[in-house]
């Protein structure tokens, strides 16, 4: 009992008059201080019947099921579509240079892009030759998805960025590996597999570290006119309450569309 009383004494609420920096909280209107949003704040309630607009394309079915599991009514409208580039000459040029030994390192950023690049290379070269060429260089993966795609080729990256697997963690992992002399970036010839939007921050960081870069683009991500997907029935638009964006470009597409905002 004494332990419980001591805990309560040490953790009792602070008085605003005893702490001048907290005094302004005492002036907060009672209605504002007690306002809650149970549909989004309480995980037990989930979405509580709200209609949820999900701007997802690759995992649209899974996301719709997830929203339904948490009590929401999903409205799935892909804000992005993936359009193949008019030509795959960059991918084939990368493969030719790789076979010629013109790269010291290859960085794979996405699993989908890793597999897509393989499919293009296989139109002109044998898979075994491509795998053997990758095994002769330092292979780096940004996260678990490109790691899984590379394992399908029996290739283990020498470096994988830790969570949350962004370009920042990737650069830090490369710096740490360079400090241990696992690899070097200054003067290294580095190919960067891209998928969709080019990551200018990553490319700039690699150049600042002295790497000679070769971009390998494959897919161009373009925004949809999301509003067009919701014409029938139009009365459902006014009942949208939450929007789920799974990528920065999807969010920008959402803010530039003609859909009502909540």
Detailed description of the structure:
A 5-stranded parallel beta sheet has the order 6-5-4-7-8, with helices on both faces. It has 11 helices and 10 strands. The protein is 37% helix and 16% strand. By secondary structure, it is α/β, with parallel strands linked by helices. The longest helix is centred in the middle third of the chain and has 13 residues, at 167-179. The protein folds into 2 domains: 43-79 and 224-256; 83-221, Rossmann fold (3-Layer(aba) Sandwich), CATH 3.40.50.10090. Helix 4 (60-69) links the parallel strand 1 and strand 2. The radius of gyration is 25 Å and the shape is globular.
Keywords for this entry:
single chain, about 260 residues, alpha/beta, Rossmann fold, 2 domains, 5-stranded parallel sheet, disordered C terminus
């Amino acid at each position: 009992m004494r332990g419980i009383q001591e805990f309560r004494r040490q953790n009792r609420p602070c008085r605003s008059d005893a702490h001048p920096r907290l005094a302004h909280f005492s002036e907060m209107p009672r209605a504002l201080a007690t306002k809650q949003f149970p549909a989004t704040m309480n995980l037990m309630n989930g979405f509580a019947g709200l209609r949820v607009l999900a701007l997802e394309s690759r995992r649209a079915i899974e996301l719709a099921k997830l929203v339904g599991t948490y009590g929401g009514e999903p409205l799935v409208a892909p804000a992005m579509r993936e359009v193949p580039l008019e030509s795959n000459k960059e991918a084939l040029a990368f493969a030719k240079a790789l076979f010629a030994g013109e790269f010291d390192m290859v960085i794979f950023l996405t699993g989908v892009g890793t597999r897509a690049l393989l499919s293009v290379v296989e139109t002109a070269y044998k898979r075994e030759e491509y795998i053997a060429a990758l095994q002769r260089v330092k292979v780096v993966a940004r996260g678990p998805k490109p790691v899984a795609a590379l394992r399908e080729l029996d290739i283990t990256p020498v470096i994988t960025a830790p969570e949350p697997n962004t370009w920042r963690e990737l650069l830090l992992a490369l710096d740490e590996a360079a400090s241990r002399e696992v690899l070097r970036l200054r003067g290294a010839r580095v190919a960067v597999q891209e998928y969709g939007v080019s990551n200018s921050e990553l490319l700039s960081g690699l150049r600042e570290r002295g790497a000679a870069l070769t971009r390998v683009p494959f897919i161009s991500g373009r925004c949809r006119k999301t509003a067009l997907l919701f014409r029938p029935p139009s009365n459902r638009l006014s009942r949208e309450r939450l929007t789920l964006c799974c990528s920065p470009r999807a969010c920008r597409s959402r803010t530039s569309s003609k859909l009502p905002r909540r």
